[in-house]
Write a structure and sequence with these properties.
It is a single chain. By secondary structure, this protein is an alpha/beta fold. It contains 13 helices and 20 strands. The chain has helices at 13-24, 64-69, 72-75, 107-113, 116-131, 134-139, 145-152, 156-171, 180-192, 203-211, 300-303, 326-341, 393-410, and strands at residues 6-9, 30-32, 44-47, 50-53, 59-60, 77-79, 83-88, 91-96, 195-198, 217-219, 224-228, 231-234, 239-241, 244-247, 266-275, 286-287, 294-299, 313-319, 349-360, 381-383.
């Protein structure tokens, strides 16, 4: 049975973790990856002396699955300062630690962002969520996040100035319609863990998983056309027979019977500019509560200096839905950057742009975990991916582990 052919489609985090767990059980899986490297949505490119992540992403150090599979010290994690720089028109102010230590937040800056009551409510929410288990959070009745914040009693001021831009950048949607379960989960993670990036880019996370594999074969540039029963049809016309298959990509793309079962994913545009020096000058995220296009920005080399090898500052800008063509988008973002920073738009030298059509899954029923039986959809086919649980690095890894456990279980003798 250990010689059985187990194929994993997709070398993203869920596919790599599935392979790791199968190896531990004595199997030698085969990964088919459409692109030229591991990582899925988590990749880092080298361009003009910069490291560019595909979309602004962070690793939260409190994620249980990340702790299980990653060596944070070897990744040389660089952490963001908790809090944010609020950039509102010509004015900018820093709020430190609003999620981790609300009652110690600096008075003056916070009063522009929210009220004393907001500070107390933030503290009480932090304490409540620290006591709640992950399972309890995902069993709580779900309402849209914007309703949850109002219901909890937060002022319009703090919702507009902090919660909206901060969580829009995480949920990748403008109206905070995302489930309150996800809000509670993320709020808890940020209040107990740190937002961090590996010194040499988010692509290092997937590379670390790949380096732990020993008997798994990975075939790159091997896009799959379709899965039919126990057969995998490759786009080059080859046909493979499999004893078990884990689909660790969006399954409706390769299984005809699943078409129409998934909501369109959230997309995002990530632009990079270089500048002579950072105007934030600290490892913090900049939030634009009234940004026309820009939701948030960060100078990546303020967090890890390895992101720039050429002496210039590297600015990552996140833009949510927009209908502009690339040239117009770049110009308008440069103009908006001038408005908030006072630095002339032409000094923001455009480096690169990523359109990320699948940035996050859109889910109605968010979960923290599922039983191993729920990821099996036919005798041979198993699913893995964050869309089974919730849109997070933790969920991607966990779903890969669950799929592998389900296959391992399928080989156990039944009594």
């Amino acid at each position: 049975m250990k010689e059985d052919k187990i194929y994993i489609i997709g070398a993203g985090l869920s596919g790599l973790v599935a392979a790791l767990e199968l190896e531990k059980a004595g199997f030698s899986p085969i990964i088919l990856e459409a692109s030229d490297r591991v990582g899925g949505r988590m990749k880092t490119d080298e361009v003009e002396g910069f490291l560019l992540d595909h979309g602004f992403q962070v690793l939260n150090t409190a994620y249980p699955e990340a702790k299980r599979y990653l060596d944070f010290q070897a990744l040389n994690l660089k952490t963001f300062d908790p809090g944010a720089v609020i950039m509102d028109g010509n004015e900018s102010y820093i709020i430190t630690d609003p999620l981790r230590n609300p009652l110690k937040v600096m008075g003056m800056a916070f009063s522009k962002v929210g009220t004393l009551l907001d500070k107390i409510k933030m503290f009480s929410l932090t304490q409540e969520l620290k006591k709640k288990t992950f399972e309890e959070i995902f069993e709580t009745p779900s309402i849209p996040t914007h309703q949850y914040l109002k219901k909890y009693g937060f002022s319009d001021q703090i919702i507009t100035n902090f919660f909206n831009p901060f969580f829009r950048g995480i949920f990748l949607e403008k109206h905070l319609n995302t489930s309150s379960r996800m809000f509670e989960y993320v709020f808890k993670m940020f209040s107990i863990g740190h937002a961090a990036i590996p010194a040499k880019g988010m692509g290092e996370v997937a590379e670390m998983l790949r380096r732990q594999l020993s008997t798994t074969q990975i075939f790159f540039i091997s896009p799959v056309e379709e899965v039919q029963g126990d057969k995998i049809l490759l786009k080059n016309g080859d046909e493979l027979h499999a004893d078990r298959i884990i689909i660790a990509v969006q399954p409706d793309k390769i299984m005809k019977q699943l078409q129409g079962q998934f909501a369109s994913p959230r997309k995002v545009t990530n632009l990079y500019f270089s500048l002579q020096k950072s105007f934030l000058a600290r490892p913090m995220i900049g939030l634009l509560p009234h940004g026309k296009l820009v939701n948030n920005l960060v100078f990546m080399d303020d967090v890890s200096d390895a992101y720039s090898q050429n002496g210039r500052a590297l600015l990552s800008v996140t833009v949510l839905e927009n209908e502009l063509d690339d040239k117009e988008l770049i110009q308008q973002v440069q103009n908006e950057l001038e408005e908030v920073s006072g630095v002339k738009s032409e000094y923001f030298k455009f480096v690169h742009l990523y359109h990320i059509p699948y940035a996050l899954p859109v889910l109605d029923d968010l979960k923290y975990s599922i039983p191993i039986s729920e990821c099996q959809i036919t005798d041979q086919v198993y699913l893995a991916g964050d869309y089974l649980l919730n849109g997070s690095i933790n969920a991607a890894m966990r779903s890969g582990r669950i799929a592998a456990e389900s296959i391992i279980h399928s080989y156990m003798p039944t009594h």
